[in-house]
Amino acid sequence: MQMETDIKNHMINSFNEWDPLEEVIVGDMFDATVPELDIAVRATMPEDQISFFAANAGKEFPSGYVSKASEELDIFSETLSKLDIVVRRPSKIRKSTPYSTPHWQTPGGLYSAMPRDSLLVIGDLIIEAPMAWRSRYFETDAFRPLLKEYFQKGGKWIAAPKPQLLDETFNPHYDPETPYLTDRYAVTEFEPTFDAADFIRCGRDIFVQKSHVTNDFGIEWVRSHIGRAYTIHKIDHRDAGPMHIDATLMPLCPGKLLIHPTRLNTIPAQFKNWEVRKAPLPTERPGHNLYMSTSWLSMNVLMLSPDTVVVEAGERNMIAFMESWGFNVLPVNFRNVIRFGGAFHCVTADVRRRGELQSYF
Ligand code: DAV
After folding, report:
1. Which residues share a beta bridge with 337?
2. For 72-100, what is the mean pLDDT?
3. Domains of the chain
């Protein structure tokens, strides 16, 4: 009994993507800076944005877009607060400062907008991810005050081995079309790298995709650190430019799995008794440039509970789809945030949900 009480009182307690949300970190856009166009960035960014990255590395993103996205993030945060969800924000640390290691230098960082990428929350543990982009080397700094506080209040906190990100980490001959067949990803197996957003949690089962930022070494590192209570399953995808699983495979609640219509080669066997539906087409937004993603961010939703989902207000198909699947939809305007590569799942790290470790399969 004593143990159960302890678990319920943990500051960090988040085993899946849907238990009722109690506390969440929401990212911010402070000093968002265009990242250096290194090999791993090149491999994952939209083709029509490559010249923008090449010309603007280390400079600020167009400030009008940044301030509009900031406003949307603030409104989203207030909306969650009004629902009695505790919202925490990163501290304001400059991103436009050049930095170097003994081996390389870069004109600056990126942003603190997407804690889903840098912080992997599993149960009562937060893991700082060893991210492959040199521009994201210090990204967790802005979250350190929160991480220290969570630790002091009983959470567990570790950082994966800091990668060196030497040239050996990257494969200039990565396969831009079928890396899932040739196994030629932008990151080599020189050292463990992963972005937390390549993992998605369903209690005792965690799904991961190998990608241009997450290698097998990184996946094995996570496996060896989270213990026997969990099983990690590598998904069989056919994404030409994979980076992050959360616009490909989105478990919404026990029994309901949302998938991208074409990116999965096979649906993981664990879901055989779940209802699996393909995401509807995203809203077309002519002239609305997305610097860092496809429009499939329409799938990048956040569950507030097993029956309530946050969807981008302009995604009419997705809203209707979710309603007809039995969910309550909270529409939130995020049209400017999505320019920067993420929607509601990406901009959050759900540190506490009301629930316990279970098996759903
Ligand atoms: O469709 O560009 C976005 C994933 C965001 N974490 C895409 C994938």
Report:
1. none
2. 98
3. 2-353 (3.75.10.10)
